[in-house]
Structure formats: structure tokens, C-alpha cells
Design goal:
The structure is a homodimer. Chain A is built from 10 helices and 5 strands, in the order E-H-E-H-E-H-E-H-E-H-H-H-H-H-H. By secondary structure, chain A is α/β, with parallel strands linked by helices. In chain A, strand 3, helix 3 and strand 4 form a beta-alpha-beta unit. The termini of chain A are far apart. The interface between A and B is medium-sized, with 33 and 33 residues. Chain A binds a DNA duplex through helix 7 and helix 9.
Chain lengths: 210, 210
Amino acid sequence: MKKKNPIRVMLVDDHPAFRKGMAALLESEPDLQVVAETGDGRHAIELFRQAAPDIVLMDLRLPGMGGVEAIIAIRKEFPNARVIVLTTFDTDEDIYRAIQSGAKSFLLKDTPEDVLADTIRAVHAGEQKLPPKLADRLAARQKRAELSQRETEVLRLLVKGRSNKEIASDLFVAEDTVKAHLKTLFVKLHVQDRTQAAISAVRHGIVQLD
Amino acid sequence: MKKKNPIRVMLVDDHPAFRKGMAALLESEPDLQVVAETGDGRHAIELFRQAAPDIVLMDLRLPGMGGVEAIIAIRKEFPNARVIVLTTFDTDEDIYRAIQSGAKSFLLKDTPEDVLADTIRAVHAGEQKLPPKLADRLAARQKRAELSQRETEVLRLLVKGRSNKEIASDLFVAEDTVKAHLKTLFVKLHVQDRTQAAISAVRHGIVQLD
DNA sequence: GGTTCAATTACTCGAATGGGTAATAATCGA
DNA sequence: TCGATTATTACCCATTCGAGTAATTGAACC
């Protein structure tokens, strides 16, 4: 028996099996109801319009549109939308971008069911809940200096394995300019050399390895 | 109605929701039956003894014991065990190690249900089936020269961001020795410098970024 | 016993990298 | 309009790195 006002949940995840299982888990809670599900970010937006869920459980890696963009798009149209990110990937940068984009919580897919249900209820009640572990990660990310546009480009090329000279010609600037950017990058990333910078960029999710 | 001799499947994956959903998907096929499931690699081994499944669907990232080790352990005791790897992670090295360890197939979690069911049937019939995309990846891995023990250690330290001098003192050898290893590493990995080598190691899954 | 391969070290040399310092121009928010 | 940030370039200098070449040792394999 459902209560009169169950919390209406929408699932966005590209694994059908996961959606199915998650739906079953959630439905076993008397106050939760799965009202919509999809594996596509773009589809999620129009589905939100139709289903008007109380809570969205959103994966980050989605075909077509990324999870963060989907959150931004939804919240642009529905500023009160309550989105919880539920994903396997958890770099500092992922967490940071998700929260920045307006997500109310961030959970990993191996989160115990009871914690998940509690988080859904808490977020539905208007709270913003983060597991302590991830909150620490977020704090770590916050402390890290913001990279400028140009620095990010240089870092991206660095991760592609390009030399200073190559990066310079890629960006149509002098090699000394690239060196200058690298110097500030090293400081901001707390590293000593380019290899550490490249690894750090990948580890923190600043640059994707795709 | 089940047939008299359904294919008995065991699920090993640390996400309860995924197990639940996958079980439901598989059970919807009349000739498939989920007879056991667990989220733990070590537990999988004794569960195999009890349940004697025809097919094991195995994730690679598991708490405690890794998926590859679990496959090896199972096949040591039951050389005829038919294991299909079902995972989100798909570096060349992952695929390679899985097949080396005796897995009969390797699928990604977003595999369409019908393909999955067909693969289970094919493997149960004794075939070794790989999606063309992953077969290519495996071929790419096969072409890559095997790294020696020492080279792998050097690469691991390189990915940790250590300099030649540091790697040398870590391994109690001369810096020239490290340089020599790096030279052969560059050739084997088809790269020009240490940064590319580090990225390549991570991208191919030779070194984990944990 | 010869061969192949991994591991080790050494030496040279040129190129790439990183640190320090500094100057200029543009943009931007207060 | 002033200070801050960003982007740009330049120069110097020490260190690190990478390529080439080569030799030795020990284990594994046949």
C-alpha cells in the first residue's frame, strides 16, 4: 500500500539493468515511487516536464548529453528541481561540477540502500546532504585554485603528450608563453613537473582521458 | 514456465541494485535462471562450489578480491567454469587480463539485453565470444610488447610522479639504469617521453590511478 | 655450451624542461 | 579610474631528460 503522497522519483542512468534494480529497490520503500526513467540526458529534460518528479537520480556519464549539462538544463527551466547525482565516477572535479550545477547531493552507486532512501527523503525535505567522505573531497576541490581558460587548454594539451614547443604552435603563441602558463599550473596544482601535472589533471578529473 | 534445463547463472557484482536489475532481466528469458549472487570476490568462490552454475557473470572491480583473481581461483578449482566478465571498465589491459585468466567473454554493462542473453547462450554452448569492438582492443593489447617486471615497477613510480633520480633511489639502482628501462619503455609503449608514457600507462590500465 | 633476454651500469651530447625575474597590454570589477 | 587578474613574451641559467652506443652479469631455454 502506497501512502497518499509518495515521493515521486525519476531515474536517469544509461544502464537498463541498473535502472530496473534501482527502481525495484526504491519501490520497496512505501513512501517512494519511481514515476519515470530514461538512459538519455536530453530525453531526461522533456521527461521531467511530463512527469514533474520530486527527485531526480542522475548519473553523470550519459550518452549524448552529460549529466551535469542535463542538471543545468533542468534547473534552468525548473529552479526548484531536486537532483541527486548517483554515479560510479567520483573525481573531485565531478563532485564540484555537480554541486555547482545545482545538485543537492552526490552519492556513489555502491551506496547502501537505506542511506540512499534517507538521502532522497532528506533532499525532498529541502536539505542538501553529502556523505562525509565526499564532502571532504569537495572541500579539497574548493581549496584548489581555479584554473584560467588558457591554463586549462595548456593542461589539456599537456595530457595529450605534447611538448612545450608543440603546445605553443597549437595555440599560436611563443614557447615562453607556454612555459609561463606551466609555471602557474605547477603552483596551482601543487606539483613540480609536467608529468605530475598530467597525472594530477587526470586524477582530479580536470582533463578527461577519452 | 521454465524449461527443464535452464542455464544456471551466478552474478558477481558489488552493486546490489545492478544485481537485482540484472537478475530480473535474465529471469525474463525462459531459458536463463539466476541461481546465486554476491558482491564479494572471495565469497564468489565458495558460492560457486555450492551452486555449481553454468555461467558466471563477473564484475572486475570488487571489494576484497579483484575480479581477475576470483576468476583464476574459480578456474583453478573448476577448469570448466564458464565466466563472462561484465564491467564498466574496459582498458586494453583489463580485457587482456580477463581473457588471460580464462574468461570466455567480456561485455560492458551497457550491453543491450538481447546481446547479453545471446552471449550467455553462446558461451554456455562452448563458444568464446567477444564484441568486435572489444576484440579490436584485445588485438591492440596483444600487439603491444610485454613489459618486464622491472619495467612495470619503473612505470608505476613514473606515474607516481617521481624523477629518474628518485626512481633510482627507490629501487636502489643507478640513475642510468632507470634511464635504460625508460628507453625500452618508450619503445614498447610507442611514446616519446615520460609524460606520454605515464598517460599511456593510465589509459591502457597498466597502472591503476588509485 | 650457446643463445636469448632481463637487468645493470657507464659515458657523451644535445634538447627539453623548470626556476627566477620582469615587462607590456587587455580586461574587469570596484 | 585604479588595482587585480590574465595573457603574453623575453632572457638567463641550472637541471633533467632522452638518444646513441656499449659492456657485463645471470638466468632461462634448448
